[in-house]
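A note on notation is needed here, since sequence and fold are reported together in a single record. The reader may check this reading against the record printed directly beneath this paragraph.
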Amino acid sequence: MTGVAGGARVARHAGKVALVTGASRGIGESIARRLASDGALVVNASIIDPTYADVPSIAFEHLDVTSPEAVRQVIGRVAGDHGRLDILVNNAGVEIEKSVPDTSVDEWDHVMSVNVRGVFLMCKFALEHLERTRGVIINMASVNAYWAEPDLAVYSTSKAAVLQLTRCIALDHAAAGVRSVAICPGYVRTEMLEHYYQSQPDPHAVRKAVTSRHPLGRLCEPEEVASLASWLASDEAGFASGQPYILDGALTTGRAFSWNDK
């Protein structure tokens, strides 16, 4: 909440319309809830309907982000029904924990289709609406866009691509007032992270090792990513564009991965 009008605090995103992909759980859900609490009307575009009965300002649109026609229709409907689109958060993503030789061609294509093609399509069809509102794109990348981690080859590659796409959009559409940024979280306590743990031979040991790697001595919470996303989407971050924002508890500050960490 920011600002004061007539003695009452004014919601940071009052009057704005936000579209968040994959907002049915984890980081996406936290972002959707935070933007809604900050005054935005939020649409969760996902393949799963979580039914936000407790938050009436969060609507749902079924969406496969890899389908050009579905993306075009959903974005057009959201912008048409609400008269505007101010915030696009590309959060939908998948992860496969494998090295290159162990990754099938179908698995490679699936991860790249959701994590990269999906972001491209959302941006492609949203930009004309965001240019009208001088809006913002927030792409969820990862610290894996910067460093290699064992058995995350295709996921890391996809997030590096998202980071570069973010920069290109920021450059190409700055004159129209559109901002494009990326959030690069480290380890966040989500179902996806738990799936990673369970894929390892000793989940408990890996969970303990992952936590101990962080200089802050803990993992990131989804709500902390949501707080950063809300700020980046706001007028307070009006000069923030073209850059990644790393949120990893100093994980990548001065330490490289070792095979002995596995």
Summary: The CA atoms of residues 198 and 204 lie 9 Å apart. Strands lie at 2-5, 8-10, 17-21, 41-46, 58-62, 87-90, 136-140, 179-185, 244-247.
